[in-house]
Amino acid sequence: MSRPLLSFMAIFALSAVFTLYSSVSKQALAQSVPVNGAGIELSTSINNPEPGQMITITARSYSADISASNITWTADGKMVKKGLGENVLEIAAPPLGKTLSIKVTAITSNGVNLNRSLNIKSGSVDLIVENNGYVPPFFKGKLPVSYQNTVKIIAIPHLADSSGKEYDPQTLVYKWKKGSQVIENQSGYGAQSITLVGELVPRNYTVTVIVSTRDGSAQTSGAATVSFGSPSVAFYVDDPLYGPLFHKTINDIVRIGTERETGVLAVPFGFNKPEKGLGNLVLAWLINGYEYPDLASNQSVILRTPDNTQGSSDISISVRNKKDILQGSSAGFSAVFISNQASNADIVNF
């Protein structure tokens, strides 16, 4: 009966010795800080910086007091900052296609060595916001987004490999978001643009895109805010010989002599309409406050000076879209009729 008891005691003793050895081993491992920074973390103020953009890098630790540690920062192997508690570094992002290697080393007051490395790359993406609002031929300006316009956003990314050669935009991966919601059906490989249909209840929103290589070795991001406003109407002289003179708008007043007539063209900017014709637009011309229904289908009117008469008339137009009901605008000007018998002094008040 004694031999089984001894065997049990021997097993118990051996187990106790193993437990003691295991405990001592774990304690030793806990005091040994592996290289590459267990116990220290690095965070950057900008996740995807542009070339040359200033970045703030902050070192933190939840296992040691690095505010009382001697901290050394290196960039590509060169020391750039050193001092007691210097846990923040400001540095410029590298040129396109280059990698900046950042390393921080912290030696705590009790001699524990902490370090962490971080590689920083740069890139950028330009976002072009377009809309389907109408503009006249050869218009070269930038048209603001109007209510219920369809918006197209095009990404022009700038990412490069280690040789500095930029990647073909069609070979990159795009992740589009409207606000906080990912646009799954328009994101993916080569998805360089998205189209967003105008909503009945317009709210300003921000569109962001993350662009990366297929292997994730390079990445950049960009954002654009889409704001909505009302469309507008502008007036141009419609010359019988040269046609509409789009190089100059009519501002407030048109002066018309007795021996000539002047055509005026109303152009709706930003409305959803076809290139030719009015589409769903409804026009209302008013002269001195009275509407002329017979002009409702005309974008232009001809103004003539009455014989031996001088004076002025207020002319305005109201444009609305009967389908996209949020689209509407109005504008006006004064037509000053100058008699051939009138002197400059006679018309000074017009």
Describe the structure in your own words:
- By secondary structure, the chain is mostly beta strands.
- The chain has one helix and 24 strands.
- Strands 10, 11, 12, 14 and 15 form a five-stranded antiparallel beta sheet that branches. It has a five-stranded mixed beta sheet with strand order 18-24-23-20-21, with no helix packed on it.
- A hairpin with a 5-residue loop joins strand 6 and strand 7.
- The longest helix has 30 residues.
- It is elongated and about 100 Å long.
- The N terminus and C terminus are likely disordered.
Summary?
This protein is mainly beta and 350 residues long. It is 9% helix and 45% strand.
